[in-house]
Specification:
heterodimer; A: about 290 residues; alpha/beta; four-stranded parallel β-sheet; 8 strands; B: about 325 residues; Fumarate Reductase Iron-sulfur Protein, Chain B, domain 2; five-stranded mixed β-sheet; two-stranded antiparallel ribbon; 7 strands; about 35% helix; globular; binds iron/sulfur cluster; binds FE2/S2 (inorganic) cluster
Chain lengths: ~290, ~325
């Protein structure tokens, strides 16, 4: 197979509060012989909060990020659901609206850049599934996760709005019954756990202004996974990870029940199955200990 | 479906039954039916009533996706019964289909719920035009097509409640107005004839207002009229800043904080953002922050990574900013 090559938009979290996510992304890419060119010039995507403040500015900044991927002639991969949403949404809006695209390009020209619309924007989860292939992953598994019940937590912004998902990715995803992460768990040899909250919101985006709402959402998710015998959860979104991994105390208080489960990044799960070491995957960076290795 | 041939398949229905006047607890009844590819969910409700149990109750009127009466939940997904085809539902969920009211805890009888909270919240956003209008004008009050487009089709909402009862925040925070009320608020805020001054302030208040929306996109996903309430919610945030009614609180500082961070680093400074948003209340985050610090999850200010070509980003912020706070 031809070597896969992408422009990597790391987002901000991978460089700060979830270093393990950066480490495991690179470790998995090495194992799968995927080349990732890091877009070191990229800015924050605005996380849908800058979008609440200044819509046009957020379009310009995201278009600039995509323009750098275009310069490399590569598809952009994101490793955060919210980065995926904001970047793909920018692409969607500019590609659909020539006038808006021209206005944005007028600004980008000031710094010698142009948004053309030539690079796709996909989440790394789907790069692995659609481009690399689940069958090939399966063949490469050296340490099947067969003794584990793993609860997939999809995260809103990868699956909703579904039109945006389907426009960006090869594999369609049913937002009411998503399957990609389940399939990946199975490919890694694990047992996927069915539970009601798998496609629900973790509450990350209202953590500061509505802490109770956020904590209940997080608590419900962990409780749902626990009640269906999960040994651990897995997510493609570092923001969901932060909620599920670091906020268990607030979550437990909010729902009146002690909840806590080890939570893996999707990359860490794949890495474990492919034989990466816990150190390579940064497992020591979790607040809720990953105690099954 | 692309073919014209009508296909039939067996579907097992599990149907929520409850009569608030008689039953202590709700229960589920099972029906197996042959479903054709032409049927919509409302046809199934009709057949349950006509062929199985005449006491089965649900709301419907227009059968054309206009009255908004018939929304229920199919396998947990808010659905307008007269619009949604069974073929799509089977594609989504397979041949085991559960029919429930939009909100089981608000059930009165079977699929019929008490929508009082929905209507109260709708009423609370001043969902009508506030304007001094000459009641006997000499000519029509024309709105240009361009101005009409500003409504972004928010006026097409049929008040079915599908989004409201799909919204996770509505279930947790009883003050929260919810996506349909926000879409209604936007519909009048975006109307050039409207000159209400209170509505925008009202929908930007903490707890009840747009800042408590978790950005989950459930409302956009379920709306049978493609209203996209979260898009309207985002516009209400932006309007609050543009019209200068945004209060200085943790929610607005959280949005503005992104700009400050990006200006300085290109990237987001996570710690700096929390500090900027919370001010002295940062104290409550310290226990979790300490745990995170121990695990190498917090970067010291002097180690904050910066984007390459930061000067470009700063230049663009200068030239492309459209809002001031
Ligand atoms: S689940 Fe949470 S962090 Fe993840 S996409 Fe939804 S809101 Fe964002
Ligand atoms: S996006 Fe906001 S309003 Fe819409 S369903 Fe989610 S929390 Fe509710
Ligand atoms: S916005 Fe859509 S889902 Fe919500 S009440 Fe209106 S029509 Fe129904
Ligand atoms: S019966 Fe009127 S909208 Fe369905």
């Amino acid at each position: 197979m031809k070597q896969l090559k992408y422009a990597l938009f790391t987002g901000c979290t991978a460089k700060q509060s979830t270093p393990e996510q950066m480490m495991s992304t690179l470790a998995v890419a090495r194992k799968l012989n995927i080349e990732l060119i890091e877009l070191t010039e990229a800015s924050c995507c605005g996380a849908s909060h800058l979008q609440d403040y200044d819509d046009f500015l957020s379009l310009v900044l995201n278009a600039r990020n995509i323009a750098y991927a275009e310069k490399h002639g590569l598809t952009m991969v994101t490793i955060c659901n919210t980065c995926q949403l904001n970047t793909a949404m920018t692409k969607h809006r500019l590609d659909k609206n020539i006038e808006l695209k021209a206005k944005v390009n007028e600004k980008l020209a000031e710094v010698g850049l142009e948004y053309k619309g030539t690079s796709n924007v996909i989440h790394f989860l789907y790069a692995i599934i659609d481009d690399f292939g689940l069958d090939k992953i399966k063949e490469m598994v050296v340490r099947p996760l067969s003794q584990f019940n793993i609860a997939p937590f999809y995260g809103c912004h990868n699956i909703r709005p579904s039109e945006l998902h389907d426009e960006s990715h090869k594999q369609k995803e049913n937002p009411y019954n998503p399957t990609s992460l389940d399939d990946l768990i199975i490919a890694c040899g694990g047992k996927n756990v069915e539970y009601e909250e798998k496609n629900k919101c973790c509450g990350f985006h209202v953590e500061l202004q509505a802490p109770h709402t956020a904590a209940v959402l997080t608590g419900n998710a962990i409780a749902g996974a626990t009640d269906n015998n999960a040994d651990m959860m897995v997510t493609p979104c570092p923001l969901c990870h932060l909620k599920l991994d670091t906020q268990t105390k607030h979550a437990s208080e909010a729902i009146g029940r002690d909840v806590s489960l080890p939570v893996l990044h999707m990359q860490q799960m794949v890495g474990l199955a492919l034989g990466c070491t816990p150190a390579e995957l940064g497992l020591k960076h979790h607040v809720t200990e990953v105690n099954f290795i | 479906m692309s073919t014209n041939t009508i296909t039939t398949q067996k579907v097992n229905f599990k149907v929520f039954r409850f009569n608030a006047d008689e039953d202590y607890l709700p229960y589920y009844e099972n029906y197996t039916m042959d479903i054709t590819s032409e049927e919509v969910v409302l046809d199934v409700l009709n057949r349950i009533k006509w062929d199985h149990d005449g006491s089965f109750s649900y709301r419907r009127s227009c059968r054309h996706g206009i009255c908004g009466a018939c929304a229920i939940k199919v396998n947990g997904r808010s659905t307008l019964a007269c619009k949604e085809s069974m073929t799509t539902m089977i594609e989504y969920f397979g041949n085991d289909i559960t029919l429930e009211p939009l909100s089981t805890k608000r059930a009165i009888k079977d699929m019929i719920i008490d929508k009082a909270d929905f209507w109260e919240k709708h009423a609370a956003v001043t969902p009508y035009l506030v304007a001094d209008i000459d009641e006997c004008p000499s000519c029509e009050n024309l709105v240009s097509p361009h101005d009409a487009e500003e409504l972004n089709e928010a006026d097409l909402c049929i008040q079915c409640g599908a989004c409201h009862y799909a919204c996770p925040v509505v279930e947790i925070n009883s003050d929260f107005f919810g996506p349909a009320a926000f879409a209604a608020a936007y519909r009048f805020e975006a109307d050039v004839r409207d000159n209400d001054t209170q509505r925008l302030i009202n929908v930007n208040e903490e707890k009840q207002g747009v800042w408590d929306c978790a950005k989950c996109f459930e409302c956009a996903e379920v709306c049978p009229k493609d209203i996209n309430p979260i898009e309207k919610i985002t516009k209400l945030h932006q309007m609050a800043f543009k019209k200068g009614v945004a209060k200085n609180n943790v929610a607005t500082r959280h949005a503005v904080g992104f700009l400050h961070s990006i200006k300085k680093h290109g990237m987001l400074d996570e710690g700096g953002l929390v500090l900027y948003s919370e001010g002295p209340s940062i104290i409550k985050h310290i226990p979790v922050a300490l745990q995170m610090f121990k695990k190498g999850k917090i970067i010291m200010p002097w180690n904050m990574p910066k984007s390459d070509n930061l000067d470009e980003i700063q230049k663009l912020i200068k030239s492309s900013s459209t809002v001031k706070f």
